[in-house]
């Protein structure tokens, strides 16, 4: 190993030069050699804004001198480019770029750069930022005791960028975004700051590990929002780390990502299709979960602020499954979730929080003290589809059959996901029964259940009848039918009064629609669920029309007529939803009387028509007495509606 001393052009007593020019030393040195720059000498002044390119293993050694406030770098060089698998070590040196659109360090083609006690500065005062450090092509950069100075170009694009490469930082201070694209980042005992963009951004299956680090920054702009830390389709793991972006709701933003937060402090968490694991971690303001996100872990603390923001918000089939959640300063409500959310937290505690000391209050043994104030959970939105089905009045046999149908479909899916053999289950179904028995409603709910369970890909529900499928001339029907079928791929197609496709005789185009449907069912066995609905007798004739129909539609659901008692329950529920009041006993008597006199087997339609008739009688009465109660249905109104 040789050492080349780089310094000014000065000759000794014998007329010989004792130092090398920087570029000559770089050319003469061989792998394993050291280039030492004499204290106080700055090659940058002679490099003409040109970065040096190194393709061999070298160490470039500078010198620092201690000052009262820290240290002074006595050597400054221009940018460094490392390529072709070389390993370069920089020690005790400043790397400065004086022009825009340039990198202080560029490491490519499987190369490695180790920076130990290095100061990086981009000093251009106009133009555009390029990454201060650029890493690509399975390369590696290790930063120890490195400081990246803030840029003077405030375009929000000052960053360390690593693509398909590895970056490690330790004991460093970085005033730039760290941006990872399918890369690996490990940062420890580091401060990362950027208040003009994300402080940390990772995407495309990156792996990020952060230990004992402060990450601060992010920006709320007029048109764009830059979370302090943004993780997209990647994994984040933190320990003893702070993510600081106060008074916002996305200090940490997860999208299609997984984050494990141990003994950390995060101002706020926003997750979409993601999983966040809290282990003794503090969320200082709020958590928001969207699109089947999951919040789990052993223990989390939601501190909260007196600003009216909800501490915990979740929707779209998300899951809250932290073993213990402790709430401090409560908003009202402090938890807001839609009915599709699974709130499975075993211990939900409301504890005392000292705002002056900025900490939870504990007793002498260190246990949290419970607060006198209790939180409020507010639910919104539609109930989960299974609960919607369960709350429907009557049709108990259909409910039981749907639950069995779903259980089998879910089991088969789980077996397939685990690589086990599973019986091929056809989801196409027959809904048989009189009108008004809930066939369309149950079909919609069934589609939601299948989607929520991950059995079908989309929450698409397409409802058609003969008119949307059959054309006016030969060839038109197949085109219309295929267009409808394709619109429902991934979801549910509901064909109401399907038997009408077989009622027009030999010259009718309904048969063409049926043939197109059968072919599509064969070609897209697992891509679509088709439900054929109609009167029982007519549907039996429909099945006999084509031998392939019955075998391709194995699931049969029989919708029975509602009983008078069930019709009363449906009718009272309908009136209540429209803010009408009525005596239940008198209303029941009306239903029983009219049902015995005139039951046309239209079920729900029959009870809705009866309610409309009652309201019309009420309107006639109110016309004569404008001061009467607009919500109260009287016994006289009911009597006037009798058949």
Q: How many strands, which pairing sense, and closed or not: the largest β-sheet?
A: 12 strands, parallel, barrel
In total, the number of domains comes to: 4
What is the SS-derived class?
A: alpha/beta
The portion of residues assigned to helices is: 10-25%
Instruction: Please count the beta strands (DSSP E, at least 2 residues each).
Output: 45
Question: Helical element count?
Answer: 13
What integer is the average pLDDT? 91
Distance between the termini: 110 Å
Please describe the structure with a list of short key phrases separated by commas or semicolons.
elongated, nucleotide-binding, 13 helices, single chain, 12-stranded parallel barrel, 5-stranded parallel sheet, Rossmann fold, ATP hydrolysis activity, alpha/beta, Autotransporter_pectin_lyase_C, 643 residues
Description of the molecule:
The mean pLDDT is 91. The chain is elongated, with a radius of gyration of 36 Å. It folds into 4 domains: 1-175, no CATH class; 218-381; 385-559, 3-Layer(aba) Sandwich (Rossmann fold); 564-640, Helicase, Ruva Protein, domain 3, CATH 1.10.8. By secondary structure, it is an alpha/beta fold. Helix 2 (385-391) packs antiparallel against helix 4, helix 6 crosses helix 7 and helix 10 crosses helix 12. The chain is 23% helix and 34% strand. The strands form 5 sheets. It has a 12-stranded parallel β-barrel with strand order 13-15-18-21-26-29-31-30-27-22-19-16. It is built from 13 helices and 45 strands. It comes from Lactiplantibacillus garii. This is AAA family ATPase.
